[in-house]
Write a structure and sequence with these properties.
Layout: H1 8-12, H2 17-25, E1 31-32, H3 45-64, H4 73-85, E2 95-99, H5 100-112, E3 118-123, H6 127-136, E4 139-146, E5 149-150, E6 167-171, H7 184-197, E7 200-204, H8 220-223, E8 234-239, E9 250-254, H9 257-271, H10 276-287, H11 291-317, E10 321-323, E11 331-336, H12 342-352, E12 354-355, E13 357-358, E14 371-375, H13 381-397
Parallel strand pairs: 1-12, 3-4, 3-6, 6-7, 7-8
Antiparallel strand pairs: 2-9, 4-5, 8-9, 10-11, 11-14, 13-14
Bound molecules: pyridoxal-5'-phosphate.
Pyridoxal-5'-phosphate (PLP) binds near residues 101, 204 and 206.
Length: about 400
Amino acid sequence: MKTLTLSEAANRTRSSDVRELLKDAQLPGMISLAGGLPDPALFDVEGLEAATREVFASEAQTALQYGQTDGQLALRQAVAGLMAERGAPVSPDQVLISSGSQQALDLVSRSILNPGDVVAVERPSYLAALQIFHLIGADTVSIPVDGDGAVVDALLSLPTDKPKPKMLYLVSNFANPSGATLSLARRKQLVQWAVDNQVFVLEDDPYGALRYRGTAVAPMIALAKDVPGALEWVGYLSSFSKIVAPGLRIGWAVLPAGLLDACVRIKQALDLHTSTFSQSVAAKYIASGRLPAHQQTVCEVYGKRADALAAALTDAFGDKLKFNRPDGGMFLWGRFEDGTNARQLLKIARDKGVIYVPGDVFYPDTPDASAIRFSFVTVDKAKLAEGAQRLLAAHKAL
Ligand SMILES: Cc1ncc(COP(=O)(O)O)c(C=O)c1O
């Protein structure tokens, strides 16, 4: 019997290990530090229910009808308002609403990259971004990350055996997975580098609004206003997934006009438009004024959990495990200093009832086998302490 031959793209696309781990997270008694999901117990169900009722009462016909590809005006206006709060005032015309920021990343990548083109990424990098670049057939070069985010100076000594990058992609605040935030000085340096080298810099920022300590750093699209010609070379992505609810599947991009038009044309072909119903609910929710208080609650809870996990890991491992202390976001990124292989440890840890993501999956090239990513946001304080103890038991058994 003949079997269907799949495309090269389908064949080279593997399911992400992180998604596979989500299945283990469902096992009874498992403490999962693996997922990157927001805590559903904190969703503002009451507020979203009220917003939904208002949509039915005031705009049911529009909310249930097809809509325009770039997104509903009311939501683009609401997003422009959020961007002003983030220090980057933009006009609603510069905003494209997407089906999650994942789609915006896909649209920008498809609009810029041809197979064989090179994207500069961080090392470690957001896994599903690497999947998109791979699917397109693009190649990557990587620059390291330290406590101030991506090491921009490393762009000056990229490998010479690959073409010059056409795009640079990074997660600017409390990155997935490194937890690092790109410093103001490096943002300015990067904007200048983008113009000088004519490389498009795409800033992905789903976590910046989840800051529990310290002060926010301006998005690069705001800094680009002070550098002649730079606005053409920078773009910004963000999402309601981590601050409201991922099930809405609403993200957005702020892009230069020509690139935004290209993304709209491609989006027409992919899904016509993002769910009008979700967009209406999101716009009504923002208009209700509940978001700032909700964000504050989420930050308070996540901040306490981040501290609790940091304390539990220090208690359990001392100097054997080095990690960043997150000031925001959803991830704690660490590295075993005693040579422990995080993937081997996971097999034993799973049997002991705790899972996490081995850090090697996040490397576009040579992986660090001792790196490890923990997410603490869905686990309470007592379970975080228990999780660290189970991990210690696994470490001893290895
Ligand atoms: C860095 C980063 N970018 C983009 C996304 C995609 O988010 P969404 O499509 O839900 O907006 C995620 C989700 O985990 C992420 O971590």
